[in-house]
Design goal:
185 residues; alpha+beta; Secreted protein; signal
């Protein structure tokens, strides 16, 4: 019954949100419905060399404003990663904020991309921006994408021209406790 009520609330909220909004605005508002909640995930592209394999994966939609959403991504005890989404000039930007345990910025941080268009209500694509190409030359061909629907959120990465592909899926139907604040936040 609880899942039915949650799904009904989500559909009602999604329908109300979707009226007269661009697809990326629907995506944004849908993600904001989960603000304050944490969810467990699993790697959808397991490999022997994946440093995330066998570790508890949790995302926490911790902070939402009119033009920003912060989502720490915890890998086991590692709290170094936060996905930072911002709405800028009608498009969504994704940046990766990487920090050390003392809160200082990692040498490789603030990389990502800006959606090239308004996308779709359930998926947004972020091709690597110029800042990323300069910071991490081998990542110049990266494309990240995030999907969201009533039951799942996925974070994905494809390095075009290589075999590099990563995907993690979070179950939005089961809230979990957050491991606490991300490093530096």
């Amino acid at each position: 019954m609880k899942n039915f009520l949650s799904l009904t609330l989500f559909i009602f909220s999604f329908t109300a949100i979707a009226q007269d909004l661009k697809p990326n605005e629907v995506f944004w508002k849908t993600l904001q419905l989960h603000c304050g909640k944490a969810f467990e995930g699993e790697i959808m592209t397991p490999s022997e060399n994946d440093p995330f394999s066998g570790k508890r994966l949790v995302m926490h939609v911790v902070d939402c404003g009119e033009d920003f959403i912060h989502i720490p991504f915890f890998v086991g005890e590692d709290k170094s990663r936060t996905w930072v989404l911002t709405m800028e000039m009608g498009r969504i930007k994704l940046k990766h904020d990487h920090r050390h345990e003392d809160g200082s910025e990692d040498e490789i941080t603030q990389y990502g991309g800006i959606a090239s268009n308004t996308g779709m209500a359930g998926i947004q694509f972020f091709p690597a921006d110029q800042e990323t190409a300069e910071l991490i030359p081998y990542a110049a061909n990266n494309v990240w994408w995030i999907t969201i629907d009533e039951t799942s959120f996925t974070y994905n990465l494809r390095r075009i021209g290589s075999e590099r592909y990563f995907s993690v899926k979070f179950d939005l139907s089961k809230e979990v406790d957050s491991p606490g604040p991300a490093w530096g936040w």
